[in-house]
Amino acid sequence: MKKLLKYKKVFLGFSLILTLISAAAVAYFGFKPGIDFTSGSLWQVIIPETSVDELKGFLADGLGLNEVNISSEEGQIYTLTMREISDGERQEMLTALKLRFGESTQEQDFWSVSPTVSKELRTKAWWAIGLVLLSISLYIAFAFRKVSDPVSSWKYGLITLITLSHDVLLPAGLFALLGAYKGVTVDTNFMVALLVVMGFSVHDTIVVFDRIRENLVKWEKRFDLEELIDRSIAETIARSINTSITLIFVLVAIYVWGPLNLKFFILAILVGTIAGTYSSIFIASPLLLLAGKEKRK
């Protein structure tokens, strides 16, 4: 049986570096909020045989819309994010687009968010993230209350909170960088992705913790804590990695071949899934060992 915990300083150091980089990116760049959080309109149109530059030039010169973010899919489906426009303005714009680019121009989707709704969505989204983190940590502390030696049950909850924060912070840092350099926005889909990541990550962490709990009851007098945790990791690592790889294959397929409006949602889940798999094994377990040694001291 390979002893992974002898490299615990490497694992924790690597995670600390990534976490600090992500935190610095979020603090320095912040997020570029989407229309869910700032109000505005999202309009998806099909315009064959044109380019992003041609469309952007016409919107600016012909319609006076300078502040428009445009993304394209398959060279003919364009997603326009702009200030909030009325239904009448949209119809006028559609008529103008058909005159400029031909009758094959079609509207595919349209929706708007008012300033009041966007403010409420933003507030509730951040509250949801915080409450889920706290609730999961408290539940883990309660679930492991009967295993208080050599690690107090509340430390299981605290370590879970640390690992979940790590798993959320890495995709958050990535999106802060993408927002600064690629104009990628953060919306409610991103918040949902973070919640999905937390749910997957805590499941993986509980699998490892539960095996450690079983081995503590079964082998505590035969092995020391480090050997018990190493044994528990060896018994669960194949399951954790295989489950994660299966999900990662699906996410990569959706990211590459899926619709444009889901790409960054899937990217957030993909990065969080990889971070969660790593943290469950290489962060939670070493921290549990350190907590046990500190108590014995």
TrEMBL record:
Residues 102-292 form the Protein export membrane protein SecD/SecF C-terminal domain. GO terms for molecular function: protein-transporting ATPase activity. The chain crosses the membrane at residues 125-144, 156-178, 190-209, 241-258, 264-291. GO terms for biological process: intracellular protein transmembrane transport; protein targeting; protein transport by the Sec complex. Gene3D superfamilies: Multidrug efflux transporter AcrB transmembrane domain. It holds the Pfam family SecD_SecF_C. One of its GO terms (cellular component) is plasma membrane. InterPro entries: SecD/SecF_arch_bac (IPR022813), SecD/SecF_bac (IPR022645), SecD_SecF_C (IPR048634), SecF_bac (IPR005665). The keyword Membrane applies. It is a multi-pass membrane protein. It is found in: Cell membrane. PANTHER family: PROTEIN TRANSLOCASE SUBUNIT SECF, PROTEIN-EXPORT MEMBRANE PROTEIN SEC. Belongs to the SecD/SecF family. SecF subfamily. Forms a complex with SecD. Part of the essential Sec protein translocation apparatus which comprises SecA, SecYEG and auxiliary proteins SecDF. Other proteins may also be involved. This is Protein-export membrane protein SecF.
